[in-house]
Automatic annotation (TrEMBL):
Protein name: Two pore channel protein 2
GO process terms (BP): calcium-mediated signaling; endocytosis involved in viral entry into host cell
SUPFAM superfamilies: Voltage-gated potassium channels (SSF81324)
Family: Belongs to the calcium channel alpha-1 subunit (TC 1.A.1.11) family. Two pore calcium channel subfamily.
Native species: Campylorhamphus procurvoides
Major subcellular site: membrane
Cellular component aspect of the GO annotation: late endosome membrane; lysosomal membrane; monoatomic ion channel complex
Pfam families: Ion_trans
Keywords: Calcium, Calcium channel, Calcium transport, Endosome, Glycoprotein, Ion channel, Ion transport, Lysosome, Membrane, Repeat, Transmembrane, Transmembrane helix, Transport, Voltage-gated channel
Start and end residues of each Ion transport domain: 55-278, 398-654
One annotated GO molecular function: voltage-gated channel activity
Localization, UniProt: Late endosome membrane; Lysosome membrane
Catalytic activity: Na(+)(in) = Na(+)(out); Ca(2+)(in) = Ca(2+)(out)
Membrane topology: Multi-pass membrane protein
Gene responsible for this protein: Tpcn2_1
Amino acid sequence: GSEADNDLYINQAMVFIEDAIQYRSINHRVDSKSLWLYRWYYSRTCQWILSLTITIILALAFIEEPSSLTVTSDVRYRLPAWNPPCGLTESVELLCFLVFMADMSVKSYLIGWKEFWKNKWLMAYILTLIVSITDWIVSLSFFCTESLRIRRILRPFFLLQNSSMMKKTLKSINSTLPEMASVVLLLTVHLSLFTMFAMLLFAQTKDNQQDKEWMVYFRNLPDSLTSLLVLLTTANNPDVMIPSYSKNRAYSIFFILFTVLGNLFLMNLLTAIIYNQFRGYLLKSVQSSLFRRRLGIRAAFEVLSSLKETPANAQQPYVSAGALQQVLQKVEMDSRCKQAIMRSLKMCSCDQLSAAQFQKLFEELDKYAIKQHPPNPEYQSHFMQKLQFAFGHPYFGYLGNVVALANIISICVVLVMDADKQPSERDDFFLGAINCFFIPYYLLEMLLKILAMGLRRYLSYPSNRFDGLLTVILLILEIATFAVYGFPHPGWRPEFMGLLSLWDMVRLVNMLIVFRFLRIIPNMKFMALVVTTLLDLVKNLRAFAGILVVVFYAFAITGIMLFKGAVVPVGNTSAANATFDNGTLRCGTYEQLEYWPNNFDDFAVRKMCFHGALLHLLSVHLICRWAKIYFVAWWLISSVIWVNLFVALLLENFIHKWDRRCHRASLSDIEYQRTVELMFRDVLEEPTEEELMEKLRQHPHLQLCR
């Protein structure tokens, strides 16, 4: 009936508006049951469960065998780790797989089977689940004793497929690869040519001094290539050139040429090429998001214009204000936006809205209100008004910064004086006395600011919340110190009592004082500009960082499979070749450099010190020749490609935001500020009527009336 059709149109419009708010695609089923399922799937609870499941399955690597549950990763001191019994982590994995199967099924149903076969990500999702479940079954059949578990390497895919921004970023990276490959090829030619030069220049002779260079670094092709590759990362500089340089300083020309051409020219050329390819990447991404938002709003307009209350003989489609109000009451959106749209609708004072008017109402989504700080309290007393003026003045804040600087300098002086003293000779009186003066001042400053501004206005500033929280923590720690160890006096070195020694308590207090000095940032215009820009960059680069986590995870799991147990402590056969005849360790070896914590024995150590460990292992030649392929692949992806991609994105974001912020009006002069997603709003192109309608006509499940 017409009533049922009207309800369907209202629900469709509601979902399309929610899609627009979240920049989601509108190409999904739009019948009543599917709309209910769609809203349930994108509800906070459902998405939270999915995110939690992804986090759990990724975190399993820390506790499943080989477990990371040890205090240290140093193979000399590490105690045997607790490994979960067979079936424990596998049960958790099975629950995660069931959630992913439900997720995949709902996604596949909602987009429709025709669209499903075109969706490569969903096909890969199914394939990953099939392989993972098969591997899980094999693992249980071997009672968890098999060393190769393919499903562990595939786990990052679940994180990747759940983020549309990560998919979009990956697509952009993929389009940049051909240009990057040309520079990597040039880098390979550079390495190969200099490797051949090195093997000819440092060939074996009767000169023992020159033979040191040949024996240690350029004995054969793989060793020569590895030595120069590590030199490109500067991890073995200047060690690699010392034997030849000690004989004749002219040999340094070879290494200078290699470094200048490789590091200063080719690596920076790669950065330039990637920046050129990525210039406009964020702009394209935001343009695409804007189109999705406009398309969602237009789709809502089209379905609402199909309501039965609309006259059939109308020249132009329109939507009644009552129908829009009915939809807005059901839509899940920010309350400020909803109120602003309702306000604009009332101010419009028209019963019928055209497509242009409808879109204009929802431009409110592209803004967010700048937070209005509560007013200062109004005191009747003339004396209180003077106090309020004095302690609310910016100069009072500057005085606080000067006092904080004096505190930092005094701590620094005491630390320099006590640097060479033994713990038994150290007197904690000076640091204790300094804290007794400065911490009460910080408390007084906080209370006077609250008096001047009022508690609500004081807490409305992030810098005040930061300052106040640290002041309260410092006060609690200081009171706890006095309660346990008494007041400071000359020779104040009591025995250890409670959870922390006196020295630990004093150190903790002073670390917080140093951290508190960051309060000066908001008072320094350009420093605040840089910091806020960098914080905004962190928000913008979340998808990029997510892909980095995926790569780290996959390489870490692969490294554990390949090299677990490769590093063994001194006293075993592996150290035999690392010693001289007198039993001392050879300089520059893994053992002499004490890189024991850098190993592949568990997941946590791989994640924490990946990059340095790989370069160290390469530079000290602890690994076999074929294994070097793994390390070189990691270096290429992480250092050569990934770091340059990051620098390119950083430059694009930073330059654009710096220019906009330097020329922008004061925040107090404007009512609204654009969101991070639409910071390029002034250079974006609004989609045309024809583009929107053409896209809507291609919708696989929506039949328009016109």
